[in-house]
Amino acid sequence: MFNPEDLAKTLENLQENFKNAQEENKNLTFSAKSGGGLVSVSANGEGEIIDISIDDSLLEDKESLQILLMSAINDVFKSVEGNKKKMAMGMLGNLGNFPFKG
């Protein structure tokens, strides 16, 4: 059997940890490059694009620019999602510390 007060406290702590992690994520920056660095994209931990850099040599090659830009954006989103999964798994792992009494 478990104590409902312990459950409430654990859920409250989990909610606070989640809130803190979301704030920390806003301050993280993930970057990805494609085309040997011709295109660079940066996003924060929330997945918002915060910077894009495009080499001038691509400005006259629309098709290559589109391909490299999509590649860099997809890569940076994979990094952001990987970080979110890592954060969630860390929090779920803490649920294993729930003090069951019985």
From TrEMBL:
One MF term from GO for this chain?
DNA binding
Location of the protein in the cell = Cytoplasm, Nucleoid
User: Where does it mainly reside?
Assistant: cytoplasm
What is the documented function of this protein? Binds to DNA and alters its conformation. May be involved in regulation of gene expression, nucleoid organization and DNA protection.
Residues annotated as coiled-coil are 4-31
Q: What is this protein called?
A: Nucleoid-associated protein HCAN_1268
| Organism of provenance | Helicobacter canadensis MIT 98-5491
Record-linked NCBIfam families: DNA_YbaB_EbfC
Concerning Pfam families, the annotation shows: YbaB_DNA_bd
Cite the PANTHER family for this sequence: NUCLEOID-ASSOCIATED PROTEIN YBAB (PTHR33449)
Q: Which family is this protein grouped under? A: Belongs to the YbaB/EbfC family.
Transmembrane spans:
none
Q: Name one GO cellular component term.
A: cytosol
Quaternary data = Homodimer.
Give the record's keywords alphabetically.
Answer: Coiled coil, Cytoplasm, DNA-binding
Tell me the InterPro entries matching this sequence.
YbaB-like_sf, YbaB/EbfC
